[in-house]
Structures
1.
Amino acid sequence: QDGIVGVPSGYDDLDNMTSGLQAGDLIIVAGRPSMGKTSFAMNIAEYAAMRGDGAVAVFSMEMPGEQLALRMLSSMGRINQQRLRTGKLKDEDWPRLTSAVELLANQPLFVDDTGGLTPTELRARSRRLVREHKKLSLIVIDYLQLMQVPGSKENRATEISEISRSLKGLAKELKVPVIALSQLNRSLEQRPNKRPVMSDLRESGAIEQDADLIMFIYRDEVYNEETADKGVAEIIIGKQRNGPIGTVRLTFLGQYTRFENFTPDIYSSGG
């Protein structure tokens, strides 16, 4: 782990560009629906929890905890998610499921699926986890636009800026990296090149300012069935306060909702 000073993501090429996820940083992971934002963030959370260097808190405002647990079991046990959901497991799935359940049960990974949290509630819950577990190594929020600002009649952009400012404040106060997932504007789908850029961040001015690291997820196969990049995900670093911007490729295993280090030999890389 040369030069990794933060929390490793588990993805070597990404960690080489970021030196890991830094304490006090607000990290935005953004993408259009079905690109795999939740899976990517959860894969990082699983990896962080398994390192045993502190508890991991996941605030899942979109997906119920049970559904998230199924996804994690699928990802950690490499069990087809469809079979796991329907309960139609094959013989070889059972030992994998057993070991994934044991693995997950022993991890300090806490999922809170309360909907529509306010910045104040989220901060109080995070502080409580710190008190109970002495150390938090990572906070994940899925997703930023689902948070509420109480009593606010102001416009949405003002609310979002209040939320993103509070998340940056939380990262600094608790000295942990905070990963917040974010929606992107639909308008990008009108472009020939649908790779996200900074201006696609919804109500974006404040998010762009507050974030220390902004990563977009792009999988060409979502738009182009004929693509040579089947099973390839691009993690596009659009902003990094203390490092380079650029693109990292990962392998995406959809049936396990899992991202892995890129191995070009599995698929022809198509240039």
2.
Amino acid sequence: MNVSFSSRELRDLLVAWVALGLAFAIFFAGGGNRTIQLLTSGSFGLALVVSLLTAGVGFLLHEVAHKVVAIRFNQVAEFRADYGMLAVAIMSALVGFIFAAPGAVYHRGVLTEREHGLIALAGPVTNLLLLVAFAPVLVVGVLVGSDVVQLVGSRGLIINAFLAAFNMLPFGSLDGKTVKAWSTPVFAGVLALSILLTVGLFLFVGF
């Protein structure tokens, strides 16, 4: 299996990664006014790095997972950023909430319903697997007493659990709709797990 990225695709992934990192950094800062305070104090850079390492990485690997599985099923697959929606993500963060639809992996070729479902499922499952990566980061942060490392770990856990749950909703162009069309039991199981993890992490870890 040969997975390659065109120059345009790499550019779109980079722009989407940076834009989402910026949007989530603004959102977690508390919106526009608080962001200005962080900028003037020199603290916004750290907030941006944390968001790039958590929300940004979660987004990147989610989309790459879609692409890899699509290629596994002999599809021509490539990510395309939605620049308008990336602007919406940043603008919404400035007013205190976030709406992120950064783009999608587009693929062409003949697929069965099962293959369609597995391609869609790959993104949310990747976000759930990232919980395994971020949990040790949180533990290390606690053990060494580093607030920054703890923040990366906790944000990584919460954001990726939420991304999995949100994308498994069976509406519109979200992954859950395609997964449900293939297998209701798989859809229900992954959605339930994602919601439980999101709620549990929010209650016990927080932002």
3.
Amino acid sequence: MQIENFLFSVSDALRWPVLVAVLLALAWSVIEIGILLAEIWRRRWRSINALENAVDQAEIDIVQGDQLGAIAALSSVAWSRPMRETMAAIVTLRPSPDAENRIAKRLADYDYNSLRRLERTRILVRMGPALGLMGTLIPLAPALAGLADGNVTELTDNLRVAFGVTVAGLLTGALAFGVSLIRDRIYAQDFSDVEFAAANLAPDKHLAQHFVPSTVEHGHSTQVSMGNP
């Protein structure tokens, strides 16, 4: 009985924290939708022709010794701050004796930065339904107690809370899942653009194969699921 009472006390103590966490998670998912819309809007002029022209112009500027001009050309097709920084690093690190390794490291860091950004919504995909389930089960104990005592009002109030939290948790997971899928595609294309620039601006053309776009080999695939792992 002591163990059962302890578990009941823990469950009862988590009631309000779980309710608050569900609301925060739902608000977080809505904010991420707004951020995603802004990211899509910034990329509305993206095209392969613009990328090729920017890389060609950067090559010309590099030949002429205009490093700033090359960075400016690549910045015109960079859609985020990390992408701009990586594009600039490709140009500035090009004269280095170990340019291949340095640029490859910058590409890897850029890839990991994108993955870290994706993790924010991937966490919500699982955390939303989990919080919703906790918020469903926790009020059931007092609801059943109210039913046993014939207190219909307490039963009704607790069931309303339980079902409301369930809906909020599932909605959070669904929104986060959609954001993760779309953002995964966007970031994978960003990484492909950066790799294309790195391959074409490689200091030695025989090193270009080191930077051939290989997005599939990187961690951009959104391995998220609304069900069990």
